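Figure 3 (text version): structure tokens given as input.
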């Protein structure tokens, strides 16, 4: 009941934007409105997964699980906020790998003690994420070396035709790797697929008809698209009012709205001792950001005036690399404890403080 009432925040955000009550009011109402809309999208996705069965349903659950992030990032792309878009890509990866996984492990460990999970499935996601980090590093290091050779200052607005081409090629390779991952997940035996983990582990009780499910999916998607436009238009003025950098806005604040429902679901499943499910949801979500979402955005940006490259700042690449390495290390032994969850949360907090106080100036961009 409370969640349904919260959906009224979307019309409120539209009214606040229509009457131009200021960037702070617009951003806060749009930010809050995204939370119940993302929850509704998650419910509709799970219901559709039940209707379509484990194989197709699991794939739909994994793909549509990132729909909120895709819509928000596409809105940022349309408005030309490329630096903020890149920061939100990094933030989506960090909040999944560190905060969501850490919070789930912490609560699950406090209630159930040491918990065991399938190392093979989680290790697959961790290995794929390491390859994705390499994909982010290649255009970044190339840009750095080119600027050194040209004896030019290392700036965030450095542009080069080769960087655009490298980004498109790397994005194509990452997307092809995503397709191979999908094929592997669909052909893997029951219980070995990360994409099917969520569907297989759910009770499978149908609440809505197919028509009702598609209707809810459409309503949630349209609502997120409208509210996402309001959010993207007000985020920069909101940050300027509070003296917040685009890095902190994109890495720390924006990803929270689309991840709240996922965080709560993972925490609940971990407390119920379903640790495989609690880990597979955020790990799979983090894997899809660089393999699916980022390449799609690169391809779409090639059609517009402002191309999106995989040229990230050094602080963004370092943050993702540290998060992936720590998550991969935790996945090695197949056992979690509440202390490991606290460690992941601590790292996310440290990085959030770093991005809050770090003032991104062009000379410090790699």
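Below: residues designed for each position.
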């Amino acid at each position: 009941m409370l969640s349904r009432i919260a959906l009224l925040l979307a019309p409120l955000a539209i009214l606040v934007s229509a009457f131009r009550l200021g960037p702070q009011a617009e951003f806060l109402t749009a930010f809050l409105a995204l939370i119940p809309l993302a929850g509704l999208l998650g419910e509709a996705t799970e219901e559709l997964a039940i209707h379509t069965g484990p194989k197709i349903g699991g794939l739909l659950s994994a793909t549509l699980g990132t729909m909120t992030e895709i819509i928000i990032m596409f809105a940022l792309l349309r408005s030309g906020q490329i630096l903020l878009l890149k920061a939100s890509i990094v933030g989506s990866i960090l909040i999944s790998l560190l905060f969501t996984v850490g919070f789930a492990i912490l609560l699950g460990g406090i209630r159930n003690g040491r918990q065991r999970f399938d190392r093979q499935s989680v290790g697959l996601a961790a290995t794929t994420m390491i390859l994705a980090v390499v994909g982010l590093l290649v255009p970044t290091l190339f840009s750095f070396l080119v600027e050194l050779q040209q004896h030019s200052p290392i700036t965030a607005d450095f542009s080069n035709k080769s960087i655009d081409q490298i980004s498109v090629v790397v994005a194509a390779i990452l997307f092809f790797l995503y397709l191979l991952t999908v094929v592997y997940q669909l052909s893997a035996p029951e219980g070995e697929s990360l994409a099917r983990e969520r569907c297989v582990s759910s009770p499978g009780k149908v609440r809505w008809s197919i028509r009702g499910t598609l209707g809810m999916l459409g309503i949630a998607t349209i609502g997120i698209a409208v509210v996402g436009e309001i959010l993207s238009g007000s985020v920069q003025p909101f940050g300027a009012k509070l003296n917040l950098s685009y890095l902190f806005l994109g890495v720390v604040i924006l990803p929270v709205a689309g991840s709240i429902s996922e965080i709560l679901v993972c925490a609940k499943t971990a407390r119920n001792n379903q640790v495989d499910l609690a880990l597979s949801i955020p790990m799979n979500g983090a894997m899809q950001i660089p393999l699916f979402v980022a390449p799609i955005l690169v391809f779409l940006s090639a059609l517009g005036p402002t191309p999106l490259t995989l040229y990230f700042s050094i602080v963004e690449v370092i943050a993702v690399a540290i998060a992936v390495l720590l998550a991969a290390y935790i996945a090695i032994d197949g056992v979690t404890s509440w202390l490991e969850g606290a460690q992941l949360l601590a790292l996310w907090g440290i990085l959030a403080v770093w991005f809050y106080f770090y003032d991104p100036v062009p000379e410090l961009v790699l």
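The chain has 14 helices and two strands.
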